[in-house]
Amino acid sequence: MFPDDLSYTDKHEWLRSGSENSARIGITQFAADALSDIVYVSLPEVGESVNAGDAVAELESTKSVSDVYSPVTGEVTAVNELLETAPETINSDPYGDGWLFDIELAEPGEIEGLLDAEEYAKIAVD
């Protein structure tokens, strides 16, 4: 149901470990479905320092505006510019082309505190 190669938060974000101390962040299919049609995305700035738990992005849908929280502490190294013109990509491909931003981890061990797919599924299904 949820990709096994990702780590998750209880706020419905996912994290995919990259090379060295980097990671890619997005929202889960569960969150994308709950938001419905995403029409606008506000992402953090490249170079911005973020802390785990900080609201760092906003997703606006036809239903509401929702914050996206950083699952880890670090510096934003890239944002998904595709979402500026095609925010609906998050709905159609949240684990692929609908990613939100990349981050250089300040504390790589933080990932170990996140949920695995099985643990996240229990939260998302409840």
Structure write-up:
It is globular, with a radius of gyration of 13 Å. The strands form two sheets. It has a six-stranded antiparallel sheet. Strands 4-6-7 form a three-stranded antiparallel sheet. Helices cover 19% and strands 34% of the residues. The model has no long low-confidence stretch (mean pLDDT 95). It has 126 residues and is α+β, with helices and mostly antiparallel strands. It has one domain (7-125): RNA polymerase II/Efflux pump adaptor protein, barrel-sandwich hybrid domain (OB fold (Dihydrolipoamide Acetyltransferase, E2P), Beta Barrel).
Q: What layout of secondary structure does this protein have?
A:
Blueprint lengths: L6 E2 L4 E5 L4 E6 L1 H7 L2 E5 L6 E2 L4 E7 L3 E5 L4 E6 L2 H4 L3 H4 L8 E5 L11 H9 L1
The structure class reads: alpha+beta
CATH superfamily: RNA polymerase II/Efflux pump adaptor protein, barrel-sandwich hybrid domain
Could you give the count of β-strands?
9
Low-confidence stretches: none
Cα end-to-end separation: 14 Å
Strand content: 25-35%
